[in-house]
Amino acid sequence: MTDTVIVVALLLVAVSATAAVAVRDPVRQSLVLAVLGVVLAVLFTVLQAPDVGLSQLAVGSALTPLLLLLTVRKVKRRKQRGHSGHSGKESDG
């Protein structure tokens, strides 16, 4: 029974990690990264490392995706502000 749970958890980790790499939109990518963090926390718990699982749950599934979402939001705002505050000169880049 335990071996089956470990194999299923490893398969879920492989699928969610592949999805995190395959997704191109940064917002969706951070959400998939949060799912990957939860799946990794489950895997660590199944492997009898609940302290590592709790750390992964806090950092990998909550903090890191939140920071990525905030960063993407700030970059988008800066881009919009840069285009709307344009002085009329054409830029090369």
Describe the protein.
- The chain is mostly helical and 93 residues long.
- Helix content is 83%, strand content 0%.
- It is built from 3 helices and no strands.
- It has helices spanning 2-22, 26-46, 50-84.
- The longest helix is centred in the last third of the chain and has 35 residues, at 50-84.
- The mean pLDDT is 88.
Helix and strand pattern: HHH
Taking the alpha carbons of the first and last residues, their distance comes to 58 Å
Helix and strand composition category: mainly alpha
Largest sheet: none
Radius of gyration: 19 Å
How would you briefly describe this protein structure?
This protein is mostly helical and 93 residues long. It has helices spanning 2-22, 26-46, 50-84.
Which secondary structure elements does this structure contain, and how are they paired or packed?
Layout: H1 2-22, H2 26-46, H3 50-84
Helix pairs in contact: 1-2, 2-3
What tags apply to this protein structure?
93 residues; mainly alpha; 3 helices; 83% helix
